[in-house]
Design goal:
Alpha-Beta Plaits, 10 helices, globular, binds adenosine-5'-triphosphate, DrrA1/2-like_C, AAA+_ATPase
Length: 302
């Protein structure tokens, strides 16, 4: 692995933009990720996450602006890729190679691999390596790419929605790997739809919407975005005063005795407020990121 100046940011983007015809997929994005930092890149479908990562990887050419990886221009693919390993959103592997052969090939392409750690990861991800890659499911292809990337000592890991095909158990294993990478000083850029995943592993998050970076937030701010939707049915009428309960917002009476509301923070005040009423049905749902974005940034982000 080449020696790098520790003062250089792992990723630096300035005014980075990409236009596809009429679509401005990425709009003047400024971003700086420090060495060793785990940065989450959140945004609804079509927000421009993949396009941004593709420009960082030299797979798409910016319409304007620039991106650097540890000081090397992203378009200088040979130089930039000495500093990084990546897992694309749709992992394609060579159909006629076995999993073991694909891992070997990937190890020879990248910036150096820790073979002992790779063996450990194969076990932890419960990966069968003797099958031809064409027989792998989407999740298993993703596991091969993840094992190959995590086993490198590349100072930057770029992961594009890497857990979309993994089951929850493997999702947790993935989170452990990110924590281990960060402990070794590797920077991680993780694009995701999954708020809980980003919350579990990231130091900071950037929220992208319609090509614009709407906010870069620390974990505490991200937690404030977290809210739950409560559906309550009462035997009698909906009690008055729910809107005044701490943390409660968007109270909407749906009909006779039925109400839907959102709650940020602890549920205790709400539960106390309805304790004297006959609650006949209660359901709680965690809204998707998209809904949170729309509710929170709605007009402001336009
Ligand atoms: N090659 C392309 N040609 C034309 N339009 C494109 C191309 N790639 C992306 N786009 C458009 O650019 C916008 C951003 O897409 P992008 O794939 O970067 O979003 P994303 O945030 O990664 O979404 P998802 O979470 O669905 O993967 C979308 O409107 C998409 O349709």
């Amino acid at each position: 692995m080449p020696t790098i100046d520790p003062a250089l940011p792992a990723v630096e983007a300035e005014g980075l933009s990409k236009r596809y015809g009429r679509t401005l997929a990425v709009d003047r994005l400024d971003l700086r990720i420090e060495p060793g930092e785990v940065f989450g890149f959140l945004g609804p479908n079509g927000a421009g996450k993949s396009t941004t990562l593709r420009m960082l990887l030299g797979l798409a050419r910016p319409t304007a602006g620039r991106a650097r990886v540890f000081g090397d221009p992203a378009e200088d693919v040979r130089a930039a890729h000495r500093h990084l390993a990546h897992v694309p959103a749709d992992v394609a592997l060579w159909p006629n190679l076995t999993g073991a052969e694909a891992l070997e090939l990937l190890a020879n392409l990248g910036p150096g691999t820790d073979l002992g750690y790779r063996d450990e990861l194969v076990e932890r991800f419960d990966l069968r390596l003797d099958k031809p890659c064409r027989a792998y499911s989407t999740g298993n292809r993703q596991k091969v790419a993840l094992v190959a990337a995590f086993a490198t000592r590349a100072p930057l890991l770029v992961l594009d929605e890497p857990t979309s095909g993994l089951d929850p158990l493997m999702g947790r294993e993935f989170q452990r790997c990110v924590v281990e990478a960060a402990a070794r000083g590797q920077a991680v850029l993780l694009s995701s739809h999954v708020l809980a995943e980003v919350e579990a592993v990231c130091d900071r998050v950037g929220i992208l919407r319609a090509g614009r970076l709407v906010q870069v937030a620390g974990l505490a701010e991200l937690r404030r975005l977290r809210r739950h939707e409560f559906h309550l049915s009462f035997a009698g009428p909906v009690p008055a005063g729910l809107a005044a309960v701490p943390g409660v917002a968007d109270v909407e009476v749906l009909g006779e005795g039925r109400v839907v509301l959102t709650l940020a923070g602890e549920p205790a005040p709400l539960l106390r407020a309805v304790a004297g009423d006959d609650v006949v049905q209660l359901s709680v749902r965690e809204p998707s990121l998209e809904e949170i974005f729309l509710g929170y940034y709605g007009e402001a982000a336009r």
